[in-house]
Amino acid sequence: MSEVRRLEVLRAIVEDYVHSREPVGSKALVERHHLGVSSATIRNDMAALEEEGLIVAPHTSSGRIPTDKGYRLFVDRISDVKPLSAAERRAIQTLLDGADDLDDVMDRTVRLLSQLTNQVAVIQYPHLGRARVRHIEFVLLAPRQVLVVLIADNGTVEQRVIRLPEDIAEADLADLRAALLGTLAGTPLSEVGAKLAAGVPGVSAEHADVLQALCTELVHLSAPTRDERILMAGTANLARSTGDFPLSISPILEALEEQVVMLRLLSEMQQDARGISVRIGSENPYNSLSGTSVVATGYGPDSSAKVGVLGPTRMDYPTTMAAVRAVARYLSRILAG
Fold first, then answer.
1. Which of 6, 10, 90, 305 has its CA 20 to 30 A from that of 185?
2. How does 18-33 read in b/e, with b if 16+ C-beta sit within 10 Å?
3. Least confident of 15-29, 115-129, 233-247, 277-291
4. Closest CA to 259 of 295, 231, 287
5. What is the SS3 assignment for 137?
6. 251 pLDDT more than 70
């Protein structure tokens, strides 16, 4: 059997099954895909693919469906991830550009990705421990009331209103901000406390108490309170795909709800040369997810946090891979701000 034709037959079976959810027969392949050979030749090709464990006959059906191994070969043969349409790219940009803060960005991202793929979308919050201080702002709301804003290079914005121990003029507050930003700019959030404890040069003694109050709040805001947290959207899409899961979808929903399994899986997934990672069915080391596929990629300054989708193995992989990668790229661009 021709190696090229074997791959063409496998590709046709995957595409037809993903589209129709029905086992694919040789006659349908000949009619729909113009493979240039007879139905008998296609049947021989299918028999060889079945012998290799790439397709299988469900029950007594005359048609075939892909196995996890078959999907893996299909995914690996996708030489390049196709770009999204101009309309899809504009939709991503418009939605994400309108976000107010990191929470809003995360929420919009998972909802958008779920809509683009019709799957469950998941996103890890950026790892705050690896983020660095990008900007500090103090807004004087009243003589003793200040809004303290800490902005990290991963897009995180933390803020809180505090009460100062004494009145301070706006110009003096601006001087304190400049001194603190000069000390902390580029400092990892995990080291903010130690850096401030070493002292802040260029601050007069008369504002020592105010400085102490501001430093205390900056240490509080830099604490990595949102590490190891994920957001999800589109679990209803999973419920609509119950026909793809021979057993109950309850274990999958429980794994998503507990988050620990998904966090562990996302952290273990390594991107390939195309900038994407795909785990198919039994490749997932967690039994509760062995009937699903996960497509994910990293985003942000160091790509350590992941964004992706989870769905049945009968997934439109080319479209899903393209959507995940495109959304991650826009997200990284926004967070780089």
1. 305
2. beeeebbbbebbbeeb
3. 233-247
4. 231
5. strand
6. yes
